[in-house]
Design a protein that fits this description.
By secondary structure, the chain is of the alpha+beta class. The chain folds into 2 domains: 21-114, Alpha-Beta Complex (Ribosomal Protein L22, Chain A), CATH 3.90.470.20; 119-228, Alpha-Beta Complex (Ribosomal Protein L22, Chain A). 34% of the residues lie in helices and 27% in strands. The chain has 7 helices and 11 strands. Strands 4-5-1-11 form a 4-stranded mixed β-sheet, covered by helices on one side. Strands 6-10-9 form a 3-stranded antiparallel β-sheet. A hairpin with a 2-residue loop joins strand 4 and strand 5 (106-113). Helix 2 (40-48) packs antiparallel against helix 3 and helix 5 packs antiparallel against helix 6 (148-170). The longest helix is centred in the last third of the chain and has 23 residues, at 148-170. The protein is globular.
């Protein structure tokens, strides 16, 4: 079950600031990673992908995740045990919080302590306008339309990554309708959660952060920071 914003506030009461480490890597070139750290379940899941390319990307992604998190926990990468929320969000025991995202050959991991976070990254790709009609709120659709055809892709992926990051921070995945909340998407507006109908308290407790990973590769991080300063640190 998703953690409520009130529960998040109790967890963050003693924090003075929030540092979020951001790790980025290429799934196709990181071939020297030790895959022996994968659990039996992870190995089986990798084997269920039909194409070897996707098998390799999954294995490299999970192995790299384990090796990085081992640096924060002090445990061996192979010994890490993940628990999963009702909607599949992985977590570790203790105060290390993380979220992993990947798009095509690119992967990114956000890691912090004592603050639930969500991360999403997306490569630009052709998108039909009716996708925004299906998943964006009326306010978001209006703002997106005002950007015109030239600004559509930038606006769409700013909006999409921010909405995904919010849902991942809350551990809800797509169990919540994407059009039930609003985020900013215009280039001159700071990234913000404007409305969250399922839990209005999240508007004041959650912050959004835009990330330009590379040309045509963008992302967002959502953090339950409760207005505390957030610093993104590239690793």
């Amino acid at each position: 079950m998703p953690v409520s914003c009130q529960q998040q506030e109790r967890q963050g009461d003693t924090a003075l600031d929030i540092n979020i480490d951001l790790w980025v890597w290429d799934l196709d070139t990181r071939q020297n990673i030790d895959l022996s750290v994968l659990s039996k379940e992870e190995q089986q899941r990798a084997g269920r992908f039909v194409q070897p390319l996707h098998q390799n990307r999954y294995g490299v992604g999970r192995a790299t995740l384990r090796h990085i998190l081992a640096q924060y926990t002090g445990s061996a990468a192979a010994d890490l045990t993940f628990r999963y929320g009702a909607n599949g969000k992985p977590a570790l025991a203790g105060d290390v919080c993380f979220n992993l995202s990947h798009s095509e050959q690119s992967a990114a991991l956000a890691v912090t302590r004592g603050c639930e976070i969500g991360l999403d990254l997306e490569h630009y790709r052709p998108v039909e306008p009716d996708l925004a009609e299906r998943f964006f709120s009326p306010c978001e659709r209006k703002e997106l339309a005002a950007l015109g055809p030239a600004g559509f892709a930038d606006g769409f992926f700013r909006c999409w990554t921010r909405k995904e990051a919010v849902l991942k921070a809350r551990g809800e995945g797509l169990s919540v309708e994407l059009n039930s909340f609003d985020v900013t998407l215009t280039p001159d507006a700071p990234p913000r959660l404007l409305r969250y109908a399922p839990d209005p308290a999240c508007v004041d407790s959650l912050t959004l952060h835009h990330i330009d990973f590379a040309p045509e590769l963008v992302g967002a991080i959502a953090a339950f920071s409760h207005a505390q300063p957030v610093k993104l640190i590239r690793r």
